[in-house]
Amino acid sequence: MPRDELLQAQLPFTLREADFPGLGSLYRGKVRDNFSKGDRIVMITTDRLSAFDRVLTTVPFKGELLNSLTVFWFDKTKDVAPNHILDVPDPSVLVVRKLTPLAVEMVVRGYLTGSLWRDHQAGRGAQAYGIDLPKGLRKDEKLEKPILTPSTKEAVGKHDQPISPQELVARGTLTQKQWDAMARMTLDLFSAGQAWARKRGLILVDTKYEFGTDPQGKLWVIDEIHTPDSSRYWIAEGSEERFRKGEEQQMLDKEFFRQWLIRERNYQGEGPAPQIPDQVRAQLAGKYLELVEKLTGTAPDLNVGDTRARIEKALKAKRYL
Ligand SMILES: Nc1ncnc2c1ncn2[C@@H]1O[C@H](COP(=O)(O)OP(=O)(O)OP(=O)(O)O)[C@@H](O)[C@H]1O
Ligand SMILES: [Mg+2]
């Protein structure tokens, strides 16, 4: 089936919510439905698409595409840092070791962009993180070496706050030893991610990791890694030239949809949620598919059909249900 037709054909079969109470107690994020029971969590990546912190529509195959990226990256980096994956019973589903999350997002950045650029412009630099940046840096400039800009993980509805390692330790969120180990793993993971992305024609600009501990106190990487939901990617080709000319970088993340919303719907998160036409949903699916192909170098095997039914079958086959 031609690609456009395939993506169109899947439009009626997307997964908005995973309702499998038998899997355990549900924690619903913006994108994932997480079912926790005993010492494991079943994480189902749905096809929900959010922008400006609101769920606006579903996108064909998005769940399995994003989940396959996390699986790809965790597999690639398993010797760099231990991760929580136990099983992948379905392309949209992870079964993970339930750990005690540490309440910090380990953000790591290779370039001066996004919120850090805004802070820098406002004269605050990276002081909130205990870092002195050189004065004359420009927007999107490559940093001499990657920097850690952690933030606290606040309760739902509250904004995460920038914080320095010293403060994290002083507050007792982490021990110094944990910080040191997490900092090292974060930089190693980021460096592995950047090197791979570069080979594939992409720049991994920044990303964030989360860590958890087991009862023995061992640190594990949890959550998702190097997905477009947790990372910023730019197209490598022409990137230096764009920087020199002061042009915007070409993003390979959710920016495409954000800009469509602003341009076509005058929507920036306020007021009633706009309708998203099927054509745009299918186009977005194409974007996610391109990203996965570009990064992994292989075409995922996508099959039209009811996503919920497929997942249920896979979970039953492996006795999770
Ligand atoms: N192995 C694990 N053990 C325990 N908790 C985990 C593990 N992996 C991830 N988590 C936690 O599970 C939750 C997953 O939530 P999810 O990502 O679906 O939504 P969210 O982070 O609240 O919001 P968003 O949709 O913006 O990401 C996060 O709080 C994450 O820290
Ligand atoms: Mg999350």
3D architecture notes:
This protein has a domain at 100-244: D-amino Acid Aminotransferase, Chain A, domain 1 (2-Layer Sandwich), CATH 3.30.470.20. Strands 8, 9, 10, 11, 12, 13 and 14 form a seven-stranded antiparallel sheet that branches. Strands 1-2-3-7-6 form a five-stranded antiparallel sheet. The model has no long low-confidence stretch (mean pLDDT 95). The protein starts with a helix and ends with a helix. It contains nine helices and 14 strands. The radius of gyration is 20 Å and the shape is globular. By secondary structure, it is an alpha+beta fold. Helix content is 33%, strand content 24%. Helix 2 (62-76) runs parallel beside helix 8 (278-296). Magnesium ion (MG) binds next to loops.
Task: Show the helix and strand layout.
Blueprint: H1 3-9, E1 25-28, E2 32-37, E3 40-45, E4 48-51, E5 54-58, H2 62-76, E6 85-90, E7 93-97, E8 100-101, E9 104-112, H3 114-121, E10 141-148, E11 151-152, H4 165-170, H5 176-199, E12 202-213, E13 219-222, E14 231-235, H6 239-244, H7 255-265, H8 278-296, H9 307-317
Antiparallel strand pairs: 1-2, 2-3, 3-7, 4-5, 6-7, 8-12, 9-10, 9-11, 9-12, 12-13, 12-14
Helix pairs in contact: 1-8, 2-8
Which features does this protein show?
single chain, alpha+beta, D-amino Acid Aminotransferase, Chain A, domain 1, 5-stranded antiparallel beta sheet, 9 helices, 14 strands, about 35% helix, globular, binds adenosine-5'-triphosphate, binds magnesium ion
